[in-house]
């Protein structure tokens, strides 16, 4: 089956060129100047992309479908979450398998692979959350690397749950250095945060805003600094997830300027939401915006610093940390965010975003003049493919690569709302936001899975993508 996408402007991390794209089966077989070929004669299907951008499918390297958290589960399953991702122009996610204390790394990986297999609308990879570092876990890392899971996430936060101490972190980093794996870090000083939370509750400060206020920027920047020092000691690659504080970003910039193989991401919630406008909303509304790292104060300048970091490559990736919980009862999962009414420490942490990310970065970045078209694609697709070992199969439009393609209408104007999204969550953090630019058509390995408002794919279209060891230093 041959498909021709004609008349559009192909945008990659490097080029912006008017070009036609010919797909045979699952891969791109030719890219040519419009009017210089007769591909329409041989194509089974022609998609007219006149006036549109033809871009690589988005890659979101940080999602938590069905994650057990705080006595409930993230409300999107692999099925609902990946279908929503497709509507938002994302054709691959990397989710996180979880090893809980007392269980094996391999067991956790197998459990998550079973949850995902046959259920995903788009392609997927797995990182591994190592929640119990011991001799066996370190040995099991070799087995997972052979299965294409080449990145391991550690937590400096959540004592008693996912938390690793500095000794365990160093051991895991040494193993990663020996095996060319990537260490991903949730960098917050969880021990200090626990003290601040306890003290806030003792003062009767129970509202959602105190979630943000008890995780000050210094608890993030101190942890980022420590993670960098430990990774340098071990000689490991480090990728810091969901950066939200400008002081933490300064630590990343300094490390990169020294030439260390340190990478970092931020997420749309840190670029668009604030304590002033969202977390401190009346009543319990602020619970919608409770996540960790926290949403911070706009007046402190974090948002501007993060956008600047994205423009200057101090930050390389925009992911989502998609981890939705309903505000009210979910039909199957019951009460979610409201578990924390009267005690902010019991609010499940996380926000939806997997469907929003690709367009939001176009909006805040390209439409609002902070980055150019090519950087938009680099931040939302290409850089993740390179950092996490799946480039050029994923992350670009080139001959021989997977035909994961989004046709994007740069002129469409619309308003974001829970009524319009496909994620299984009963609110949108971006409710009422007016935006420009919309995903029109989505192809996954040559198959049209989204056409306007219509879903044409099927559960199980998505395949597991084994990933290579880390081979990028900057
Ligand atoms: N942060 C969140 O907000 N949710 C899930 C896990 C995490 O680290
Ligand atoms: Zn995290
Ligand atoms: Zn996360």
Overview of the structural elements:
With 474 residues, the chain is an alpha/beta fold. The chain has 2 domains: 2-55 and 396-455, Urease, subunit C, domain 1 (Roll), CATH 2.30.40.10; 59-374, TIM Barrel (Alpha-Beta Barrel). The protein is built from 14 helices and 21 strands. The chain has an 8-stranded parallel sheet with strand order 8-11-12-13-14-15-16-17. A 7-stranded mixed sheet has the order 3-2-7-18-19-20-21. The mean pLDDT is 97. Bound molecules: dihydropyrimidine-2,4(1H,3H)-dione (DUC) and zinc ion (2 copies). Residues 62, 64, 241, 321 line the site of one zinc ion (ZN).
What labels would you give this structure?
single chain; 474 residues; alpha/beta; Urease, subunit C, domain 1; TIM Barrel; 2 domains; 8-stranded parallel sheet; 7-stranded mixed sheet; 21 strands; binds dihydropyrimidine-2,4(1H,3H)-dione; binds zinc ion
Biggest sheet statistics: 8 strands, parallel
Number of helices: 14
Count of extended strands: 21
**Beta-strand percentage range:** 15-25%
What would you call the structural class? alpha/beta
Radius of gyration: 21 Å
Question: Low-confidence parts lasting 5 or more residues at pLDDT below 50?
Answer: none
Residue-averaged pLDDT:
97
Seen as an oligomer or otherwise, the chain set is single chain
CATH hierarchy class name of the largest domain: Alpha Beta
Helix-residue proportion:
25-40%
Shape: globular
User: Could you name the CATH homologous superfamily of the largest domain?
Assistant: Metal-dependent hydrolases
Distance between the termini: 39 Å
CATH fold node name of the largest domain: TIM Barrel
What's the structural domain tally?
2
Q: What ligand species are in this complex? A: dihydropyrimidine-2,4(1H,3H)-dione, zinc ion
Based on the coordinates given, report the CATH architecture of the largest domain.
Alpha-Beta Barrel
